[in-house]
Design goal:
Family (chains A, B): Belongs to the PrpD family.
Largest interface: A-B, 68 and 68 residues
Number of helices of chain A: 23
Keywords (chains A, B): Signal
Strand content of chain A: 5-15%
CATH superfamily of the largest domain in chain A: 2-methylcitrate dehydratase PrpD
Shape of chain A: globular
CATH topology of the largest domain in chain A: 2-methylcitrate dehydratase PrpD
CATH architecture of the largest domain in chain A: Orthogonal Bundle
Radius of gyration of chain A: 22 Å
InterPro entries (chains A, B): MmgE/PrpD_sf, MmgE/PrpD_sf_1, MmgE/PrpD_sf_2, MmgE_PrpD, MmgE_PrpD_C, MmgE_PrpD_N, TAT_signal
Protein name (chains A, B): MmgE/PrpD family protein
Oligomer: homodimer
CATH class of the largest domain in chain A: Mainly Alpha
């Protein structure tokens, strides 16, 4: 390991995704129940064309209010994490490696001053947004939907003005496309080893960019075909910079597919469903109804979720409980005798580190997570930093956290009892943690997360401006203003 | 089909690959026998590292003479087909689609005047070289090895001077890498639907570029990992422009992987062999000994073959026989009474069109192939053009061609008897056609193929210069001269 010390590697937010992904899988089941029963299976033909037809005809005005709203929240959350990760070592490396090859300075890098052509900019912003594994999650597939799509269309909108309405429509359609295609092959496709955010994500980017470029139906069919030819990402990359590479490269590949298709670069007309097409080649499961069923009626894009805490979601219920008890009782560390918590076995399996040495290790410590939540009332990147992991108060308190595996507790749940030195017994049961489909983060909480991530990267007033642009995206004359405002001068 | 008429699509050399691929499979078996028995299986660990170690330590001086020679022939053949395809509609589209996004004019397009950054140039030259499906073939895997590798390193050599020796070493190592990785997963990987030229090709490009960039072992491990994250191509794309997209994008993706790894963008250390790494995710067969066995001793790069005729290889024995009989007997069309030929069933199954209407259809007509070979003494692109397909002499002669499926004739063989009007019976049995591993094309034949492809694209004296540079590549101070000389002013 000649160039990178072990410590540097650990700082790359390396191992976090493992825990996140394993537990996301468990959570996926409960989210699944929220979806209406599937319609009868569509015949296995014209899958690609049906999807393409929908994409080229779907209008902003067709979007239900809740879908628009979730699209806006998806955007705001994503821009925040992209700014937050923008000065990570991983991004510095990507910028320096690609600068000699970039085309015209068409698009901004979030939180940075460099400008790249739209494909390279989309790649780098996509990397940026996934480094902390703190972006959005479609729990049914564990796809992080915004990365491949928002990276692509924000870059495109800087080069070619796009109205806010068209932008939001493209965002929703891109997310819809990748999540539906993901549904069609999940879980088999993910289980065997594909990083589904990158493999399905290419379609999201191609669909969204194709929409903004006003491709006709045949061109959209070809864009989907060229996207299918460029899947990105293997799960073995988790724990390295290669993980955040995947949504970024998916974004770039989708643009590549769409710009070629726009000039009538042809592909197959049945790339998704053909015998040696995408779904049959890349997965042992193919449920095409997930792609073509109820298009324009059922919206996967409405099911997007956002992480309130910068760690695998297996610890989220405990952090949620700890923060609630702290705030309700104005608790401080010195008041605590000990903390009992009843947890699912996965919690100790994945996050059982009793004495984490640094920020990254602390993401795998339920002891640290509860302690820092009580001391600081939060669970953001700062709470999983080297500073927090070695803070004497937090280190002392984590020794008083007593998790016990308890039958009947699901991974989504926790049962916490804080016993104070003065003899009080404070209890909190969490059925669904904040950030789940059932208990979504509030807009206010998304703003706090955004501001927290932007702190130290861009000034607070600039962060405020970017948030305002995101909230009012539907009224913008040019959605490219968002990316321009999120860059540094 | 609003923008492209059926006729235009047919002109894209669309359906040819189907026939080529199916028959290549049959031919693969005989080639297989030429390979020494495999050593005992290597343990499934350190596959990626073992390969990376080999790549960073292998020197030009280590290459056996026959491997060097085949590397030079691989280069010359590839440059010829890349020039030949350079003004196809597919390339025009790619150039016009990507021009707005290209970086600095670092590298030439073969046979054209535009210059692009090395990744986009490699993509376009890779497309160019595969359009006629007339490039080289590693028969054991049906990989077209030069496309992903030569596209990448020729572009790179223009940006960054590379000695001819280093260039040839990188070419061989790139071909070796992709063919060995292809061997490890073939045939299962191909059978399920992957276009192995694109999926394995990315590794070839990454390895060759990584070698030219002098990556250290760890960086080469990461380059392989990032390449593994970007497989390209599905067989369903065969018959569309998307097929030639695949080697081009593989070349670009390999460069992308290597330039990131060169700056220490990390990946997994076991991306090829890990449980959720490349081989397990993308194939049901994994034979890692094909990757790490006898490195530096057994050379897949020495097994490369070149097509003498611009059509699927199932017709090659018949064309070979017809040309030999024609030349030996100075035959002209008017002398022929009829042509009997004993063939394998695949010949009529794949190439049974009795009355092809145009150039592309003629690639699927054994009747046309034999007739044009007798009339023109060749089987290049010109012999499968619209002109040739409608030439009255050839049309008349094809009606006298009588193929008969005959037990005992393999797809590699043909038994031809030409009966002349003056009563002569001229016989030729082909055991292995020209262009096979057993009867390789001569250097002279490669030159004729090259000149034929270059005609009408670049002047004959320029083609001569490019060929000379290819033959003497090992003595060049800067291999970038080849690409520069192959471009138009």
């Amino acid at each position: 390991m000649p160039f990178t010390t072990r410590r540097t590697l650990l700082r790359t937010a390396a191992a976090l995704p493992l825990a996140a992904s394993m537990t996301d899988r468990v959570f996926a089941q409960s989210a699944d129940k929220a979806v209406p029963a599937a319609a009868p299976k569509a015949p296995v033909k014209d899958v690609t064309r049906t999807l393409a037809h929908y994409l080229v005809t779907a209008k902003y005005d067709d979007l239900p209010e809740n879908v628009r709203k979730e699209g806006v929240r998806t955007l705001l959350n994503w821009v925040g994490v992209a700014i937050g990760g923008s000065h990570h070592q991983t991004v510095d490396i990507a910028v320096s490696a690609l600068q000699p090859f970039s085309g015209p300075p068409q698009a901004s890098l979030f939180g940075r001053k460099e400008r790249f052509d739209i494909m390279n900019a989309a790649f780098i912003n996509g990397v940026s947004s996934h480094i902390f594994d703190y972006d959005d999650t479609h729990l049914k597939t564990i796809i992080h939907p915004a990365g491949p799509v928002a990276s692509a269309i924000l870059a495109y909108s800087e080069m070619q003005p796009v109205s806010g309405k068209d932008f939001l429509n493209a965002l929703v359609l891109g997310v819809e496309t990748e999540c539906r295609i993901g549904n069609a092959v999940y879980p088999n496709h993910y289980d065997v080893g594909w990083h589904i955010t990158g493999t399905a994500g290419v379609f999201g980017s191609a669909a969204a960019i194709g929409k903004l470029m006003n491709l006709n139906e045949q061109q959209m069919v070809w864009a989907i075909g060229l996207a299918a030819s460029q899947p990105v990402g293997l799960r073995e990359s988790f724990g390295s910079m290669n993980k955040s590479f995947n949504p970024g490269r998916a974004a770039a590949n989708g643009i590549f597919a769409a710009v070629l298709a726009a000039k009538n670069y042809t592909s197959s007309d049945q790339m998704l469903e053909a015998k040696r097409g995408w779904a049959n080649t890349i997965s042992t499961k193919q449920d095409y109804n997930e792609i073509t069923g109820d298009l324009g009626k059922r919206y996967e894009a409405a099911l997007n979720t956002y992480k309130p805490f910068a760690c695998g979601i297996v610890m989220h219920p405990a952090i949620d409980a700890a923060i609630q008890l702290r705030n309700e009782n104005k608790l401080t560390a010195d008041q605590i005798d000990h903390v009992d918590l009843k947890v699912h076995p996965l919690v100790l399996e994945l996050t059982g580190k009793t004495a984490p040495h640094d920020g990254l290790e602390s993401k795998f410590s339920i002891y640290h997570a509860v302690a820092v939540a009580i001391v600081e009332g939060a669970g953001g990147e700062k709470q999983f930093s080297d500073r927090a992991a070695t803070d004497p108060t937090i280190v002392a308190l984590r020794g008083k956290v007593k998790p016990v595996v308890t039958p009947g507790i699901t991974p989504a749940q926790v049962d916490m009892t804080i016993v104070t030195k003065d003899g009080r017994t404070l209890h909190k049961y969490i059925q669904h943690a904040i950030g789940s489909v059932e208990v979504p983060m509030t807009d206010k909480q998304l703003e706090t997360k955004f501001a927290d991530l932007a702190e130290g990267v861009i000034p607070a007033d600039q962060a405020r401006k970017v948030m305002d642009l995101c909230w009012k995206v539907e009224t913008l004359e040019n959605a490219g203003d968002i990316a321009r405002t999120a860059a540094t001068a």
